[in-house]
Amino acid sequence: MSRPVPEQLADLPYADLLQPHTGPLRSDARYDTVHFEGGEHTDESGAGAAFLECAFTGVAFSGVKLRQARFNEVWVQAGRWVACDLSDSEWQDGAFLGGVLAGISAYGSAVRRVVFRGCKLEAVNLRAAVLRDVVFEDCLLRDVDFGEAKLTGVSFPGSTLEEVRLRGAQLSKVDLRGAARLGLADGHQGLRGAVISSTQLLELAPQFAHALGIEVKDR
Asked: pLDDT tens digit string along 97-129?
């Protein structure tokens, strides 16, 4: 991604405009230059809400419903998003720095020009999602499901992939060469359209053989 990612809250171009958020989330609300700082939101609903140039620092979301919400130029630092519904949501020009996303339903979502850096993604459902120009940098992706998703211009520098699913996925210009580990649970045919290194090819060879029904014996 060519554009720089702000490392600190003060580096955001809209930092001076941010206003503190108070109270619970509201469905279909519009949050413009709002700072969500600390605190925990549990079982609330922000479905259909719009978050424009917002910052989230140290926020814990648990069981929050954000279906069809829109996130445009949001900045998330050191948060915890657990068992949240983000299905059919839209993300554009955002960044996740550190933090955890676990048990997330994000199927059918659209993610464009978003950076995940130093994050842990576990049991995240991105089936039928559309990801374009997304970077997973130094992340752990465990049990992440990209089944039937469309990935274009996605890269994984320094990231560890464990039990990642690609069944039925469509990949274009996806760069996996920088991944520290490339562990796939299924969907090896889904790698068509991706770029991997010769070392990764050798590591994946037994899985490719198994997926194709090939029995490998030296004798």
From this structure: 999 999 999 999 999 999 999 999 999 999 999
Structure tokens at 103: 């048990």
Amino acid identity of residue 22, one-letter, is T
> What is d(CA 80, CA 168) in angstroms, rounded to the nearest whole number?
29
Cβ neighbour number for residue 64 with a 10 Å cutoff: 24
Decide which of 206 and 38 is more confident: 38
Pick from 74, 67, 18: nearest CA to 46: 67
Taking each continuous run of H as one helix and of E as one strand, the counts in the chain are 1, 23
* pTM of the predicted model over 0.90: yes
Distance from C-alpha of 165 to C-alpha of 172, rounded to nearest angstrom: 16
The span from the CA of 174 to the CA of 162, in Å, is 17
